[in-house]
Amino acid sequence: MAQCVQSVQELIPDSFVPCVAALCSDEAERLTRLNHLSFAELLKPFSRLTSEVHMRDPNNQLHIIKNLKIAVSNIITQPPQHGAIRKLLNDVVSGCQPAEGLVANVITAGDYDLNISATTPWFESYRETFLQSMPASDHEFLNHYLACMLVASSGEAEPMEQFSKLSQEQHRIQHNNDYSYPKWFIPNTLKYYVLLHDMSAGDEQRAESIYEEMKQKYGTQGCYLLKINSRTSNRASDEQIPDPWSQYLQKNSVQNQESYEDGPCTITSNKNYDSNLLSLDGLDNEVKVDGLPNNFRTHPLQLDQPIESSNNVDGPDHVKSASSLHETKKANSGIIHGACLTLTDHDRIRQFIQEFTFRGLLPHIEKTIRQLNDQLISRKGLSRSLFSATKKWFSGSKVPEKSINELKNTSGLLYPPEAPELQIRKMADLCFLVQHYDLAYSCYHTAKKDFLNDQAMLYAAGALEMAAVSAFLQPGAPRPYPAHYMDTAIQTYRDVCKNMVLAERCVLLSAEILKSQSKYSEAAALLIRLTSEQNTWKGMDSDLRSALLLEQAAHCFINMKSPMVRKYAFHMILAGHRFSKAGQKKHALRCYCQAMQVYKGKGWSLAEDHINFTIGRQSYTLRQLDNAVSAFRHILINESKQSAAQQGAFLREYLYVYKNVSQLSPDGPFPQLPLPYINSSATRVFFGHDRRPADGEKQAATHVSLDQEYDSESSQQWRELEEQVVAVVNKGVIPSSFHPTQYCLNSYSDNSRFPLAVVEEPITVEVAFRNPLKVPLLLTDLSLLWKFQPKDINGKDNEEVRELVTGEPEMIGTEVISEFLINNEESKVARLKLFPHHIGELHILGVVYNLGTIQGSLTMDGIGALPGCHTGKYSLSMSVRGRQDLEIQGPRLNNTKEEKTSITYGPDRRLDPIITEEMPLLEVFFIHFPTELLCGEIRKAYVEFANVSKCPLTGLKVVSKRPEFFTFGGNTAVLTPLSPSASENCSAYKTVVTDSTSVCTALTSSASSVDFGIGIGSQPEVIPVPLPDTVLLPGASVQLPMWLRGPDEEGVHEINFLFYYESVKKQPKIRHRILRHTAVICTSRSLNVKATVCRSNSLEDEEGKGDNMLVFVDVENTNTSEAGVKEFHIVQVSSSSKHWKLQKSVNLSENKDAKLASREKGKFCFKVIRCNEREGATQSSEKYTFADIIFGNEQIISSASPCADFFYRSLSSELKKPQTQLSMHTEKHSVEDAVSLIQKCNKVDLNIVILWKAYVVEDSKQLILEGQHHVILHTIGKEAFSYPQKQEQPEMEPLKFFRPENTTATSRPSLEQLSNLIKTSLHYPETFNHPFHQKSLCLVPVTLLLSNCSKADVDVIVDLRHKTTSPEALEIHGSFTWLGQTQYKLQLKGQEILSLQLKACFVHTGVYNLGTPRVFAKLSDQVTVFETSQQNSMPALIIINNV
Q1: Distance CA 85, CA 962 (A)
Q2: Which of 4, 807, 1028, 1126 could covalently link to 814 via disulfide, CB atoms 3.0 to 4.6 Å apart?
Q3: Using only C-alpha atoms, what is the Rg of the chain?
């Protein structure tokens, strides 16, 4: 139980005090009424004695009484109505609420920290009122009148006669059978005569004389002169006199109760309530109707009509009665009690009570106890023994013990007043009232046995109850508290006697006693026993009693040594429920709120929902609308496990409450709504127009849209592309102010800067909603909430900063979504647009909408729909308008030490765009753009560029990581005529018709790579778009051709294009804009080309020039038949090089038709010669010579677009490397130079372009596809491929640990490279006839040609001596000898050809190999000799014939 102000040792004596009646004359009553008090009320603050009192017990032992209190009340002849008592108790509880600002106790139990009110003053007030308002009954005498004060005024004409009348009236009330109420203790009631004298108006001498007369007649012990009203009431305001009555009267009067709206009862106003104060003890109020004398017929707890409990708090009757009561309260609040009394008068009243108790009441009680004791002793010998013997005679010697359930109270068994059993009970009660607990206990114990023997269960229960209390209160505690007495008494009262009032008194007393002994568990069990729903009190459910007892049980659980927190919370919930049934809304709300501390956040979601729902309803009933909204909000925002129907009910209740709240302040700010959930961090902001859908063959650039998923890799690629083009525009340097353009802001983008938006271009905000409920939510009139700070053209703030929350369309246009349905447990995004019409700073604050549910989805529970509130696609049941803010937390900072050690977050500005001035806006459309290509296939498409803004744009460029995929054509495109046949065949190439005689002979042309945007140090990825006049005016559009070439690898390719453009008028904030496009191309296999170049043996060609090579080209058709390609035709092979060109085709077969069916392979051989100096080296180093060998009747001009474009694009990766070797001649040659020169001898700069046509059958039509493949040949003898080779992963080798040698050896060329410095060739007759019979020695002239392949001087050693390493070698060479010098030392200039005239000497006929000379070479100016034997040519065979 909760802590109480009084201990149980103080509570019980104060609850059972001697009762004294008061009977006043009209004049005496008038004197007290001058103080706004009745006589009984006048005495109330002084009714406790301030000193100890002594009396003697029957054994003549002195007995001390401490803190004795007496109860004086006016005589009432009608017992109180139970309904009236119940209403009084209701009012007492509702009027006592926790004090504002009261600091609650914090109890820590386990994981719980609970704020709990340690005291429950409402319970104490209830208990005090309950005990005082108990009606007197026949089975006990504790609240029977012991004495009667007869009060008359000294101002009456005949005071003594008035005393006689009052005495007769008292006698009539006590002894006349017409009056069953009130109850009197003994027939011989003490009468005490009190003469009231008004000091301010009365004659004091007369009063004294009358008092003397009274003493003569009634004795000095039986009368008293009480002087009051020492001052007049009109002087009351002169000095402040304390008002001791207010704590008794204001606290307890009905008119001064607070919060009538909490009460469940409709109060019926009557004249009694209007004119009188109703005191809490229920027995001490003298009621006077219209000034007539008191007729004793009406009790203050008498109602004019039965009370009907009504829970309709908002009913008109209640409002009227409550308002009238508040008016009464206001009228009474200014009343001063005891206005005519001085402090001396206070002392006189206190002295009067002392005198009355000492001289009148206590001697009377002492005498009565002695008389009762004597009677009992005298009767014990005869009556009791005779009575016992009679019982034994008829019923046997021993009364069998019976259980309580077997014992039945004989309703007819009523003891006569003089019955000895009742005399014992009377004596016990008297002893109890004067705190003689030892004697009281023995008397109660004796009476208990007698009553049980007689089966008088009501009497027995009463005796058991008081015996238990007496045993507990005995000084020195000679015996333990007999709790089983109380249990038996409670069970008897409740089950046998059906008297819940007495049972409740037992429980209240016993629980206090158990609490004082720290037996909280037993106390709780006792309290709970009396709270079952079936218990009734005179036919009316006592919910108030159950609520209070359950609350006390809860406090028992929390006050245990090991607090039982969950039991506390559970019983607080039960108490709250019963409080609610009893109409005590505030107490119900308090109980639920205290219990919520335990259930909150522990995962008991259903319990939390129930508590929150109840808190919401109670708060709403009490008009605590903010609390109600908060509670309902909690139900909705937690992950609810309720059924759909229950969630629907919760939601509608919330909407209903919210609507009432919003109606209180219709012009106030929008309230925050809890539903649906908004994932703020997932908010995305998109700047710009939506992408246009594809229109036939026209396909808009993909650009950026909210439909695209974020991909970090892709985002990085776009960033690199933009940096690339910005660097090119800014002459290779990225400006420090550059930031990548971000059209779509999300949680992955860099949102630390204010984003820039362009005026007149929409801003789309994607808000991610989630409906956590199992019922659909309907949002209507959904739009963005924003504020805007306009600026003028110069960027200065306007003087007036306007927060345009509801929206001004001339500044910012706002899109409104009329209906947005989110199904149950669905996540859904809404895209809301703003249209800025003015420059300035925009701040997007959140969303504003009407929240509602769909009518008919679930049944309503008691709350009617509001008709006609919405018309639309869905039928809306009820809706409230509110807002939700978009608050996005920035990324956590983790750069500095301070940031790492603390938790700080950076800003996220994605919702705070700056609106800038107009900018051009480009739209790009692709026409006839393919989605499928063969590898290497060339296709022509068109690109349309449109400026849809009001500003001209310029500087249009496109950048891509795959420049080899597309071209707009080079500068030569306009110079090349388009042949009729090309247009007939719809060919993408420029072609020229040729005659058949030139087949297999190369046709040459030349082109500069600069014309195609490729040059040393340039960025091949950045391609300017050739706009006419380089400017695109507002509203204008232009179509340009675009050639595409399928990538060499098969599969799906994503190719990113980034279009860059600027405004003609430079803007300070946005320097450029971009447009993105991602093309997806699926390529399938076509041809694989493999080529090898090797040196030709002959040193001279047809033109007499040396230095020629052979190129072998293998072409394989790798296309599978699924693609529908019937066959490939090789139509042309072209070469492109700065130094070499194709000369002719070396046909290995006579078949000139180069067709390849599926999986077929063809082999071609071509002769390559060096370009003429005028064609190559003397001109610009960027000039390339193109040579075409045609296999058909049309020449494709390979040096023109698009053939040359794609060729140069494929070369771009090679050309990006700066060629610094050319400038090295002027410097001193080092070893590295030598190496590079040697390596150059092996290098060739030759590129082969294979042009083909493919015949495809599709839908019974034959289509001709065209394409080209490139093979770049770098090294002699090394194979090159048109398709990228897969790198095989090398096997893992074990790690080797070694110490690096400290050598500074330079890189050394390989033997293969060194052996190619000099090319040798022998010129001699194939057959030689010699007459050996004439001349035995045959001399044959042989010319040895030495060709220097490098550009440096080379020292050459020619050694003609035969190697005689083994006999086999002699056999191979045969027996011939070189005549003349056996070794030559020569020097060859760069690329010089030298001939040596040699002579071979033969002695026999036969076939001889002349290829025996060994040639050694080294660079002339090198100290280090890289001298290596040079490669021999093929075997040089000569036949020697004898003639």
Answers
A1: 96
A2: 807
A3: 60
Cα gap 306→81, rounded to integer Å:
10
Q: Which pairing describes strands 1327-1330 and 1437-1442: parallel, antiparallel, or unpaired?
A: parallel
Write the DSSP string, 135-177: PP-SS--TTSEEEEEEEEETTSS-HHHHHHHHHHHHHHHHH-T
3-state secondary structure of 1002: coil
The answer to whether the predicted template modeling score (pTM) of the entire model surpasses 0.85 is no
Please list, in sequence order, all residues whose beta carbon lies within 8 angstroms of the beta carbon of residue 1231, skipping any fewer than 6 positions away: 1306, 1422, 1424
Spell out the residues 6+ positions from residue 604 whose beta carbon is closer than 8 angstroms to its own. none
With the CA atoms of 54, 56, 61 and 63 taken in that order, what torsion angle do they form, in degrees rounded to the nearest 10?
-30
**What's the rounded Cα separation, in Å, for the pair 1137 and 1182?**
10
Q: Dmax over Cα atoms in the chain, in whole Å?
A: 206
Bin 1030: left if φ > 0, else alpha if -120 < ψ < 50, else beta: left
Nearest CA to 760 among 905, 921, 614, 922?
A: 921
Residues in the chain: 1443
Lowest mean pLDDT among 62-66, 342-346, 593-597, 1224-1228: 1224-1228
Residue of 1354, 1372, 1440 whose CA lies nearest to 1412: 1372
Residue 1077's beta-bridge partner residues?
1057
Output DSSP code: residue 203.
Answer: -
Residues 939, 1043: contact at Cβ < 8 Å? yes
d(CA 1242, CA 1274): 8
Distance CA 1290, CA 1209 (A): 31
Q: What are phi and psi of 161, to 5 degrees?
A: -65, -35
Distances in whole angstroms, Cα of residue 250 to Cα of each of 86, 336, 339, 822, 947: 19, 11, 16, 57, 86
DSSP 1325-1394: -SEEEE-TTT-S-EEEEEEEEEEE-SSS-EEEEEE-PPP-S-HHHHHHH-SEEEES-SEEEEEE-TT-EE
Residue 527's CB: how many other CB atoms inside 10 A? Answer: 27
pLDDT (0 to 100) of residue 531: 82
**Is there a contact between 488 and 526 (Cβ–Cβ < 8 Å)?**
no
Buried b (16+ CB within 10 A) or exposed e, 747-766: bebebeeebbbbebbbbbbb
User: What's the rounded mean pLDDT across residues 281-301?
Assistant: 41
Asked if 960 and 1078 touch (Cβ cutoff 8 Å), the reply is: no
DSSP count for the chain of H helices, then E strands? 32, 58
Q: Are 1276 and 1088 in contact (CB under 8 A)?
A: no
CB count within 10 Å of CB 1429 equals 14
* pLDDT > 90: percent of the chain: 22
What lies within 8 Å, CB to CB, of 848 at 6+ separation is 670, 781, 782, 783, 784, 785, 881, 882, 883
What's the pLDDT score for residue 257? 34
Contact in structure between 653 and 613 (CB atoms under 8 Å): yes
The tokens describing 1142, both together, are: 């194709």
Tokens at residue 327, please?
Answer: 């008016």
Amino acid at 619: S
Distance CA 436, CA 462 (A): 18
Distance CA 1192, CA 1132 (A): 7
CA gap 1175, 1198 in Å, rounded? 16
Give every strand in the sheet of 1376-1379, ordered side by side.
Answer: 1318-1323, 1338-1348, 1393-1402, 1376-1379
Q: d(Cα 685, Cα 763) in Å, to the nearest integer? A: 7
Amino acid at 1236: S
Say whether pLDDT at 865 is over 50.
no
Q: What is the pLDDT of residue 900?
A: 81
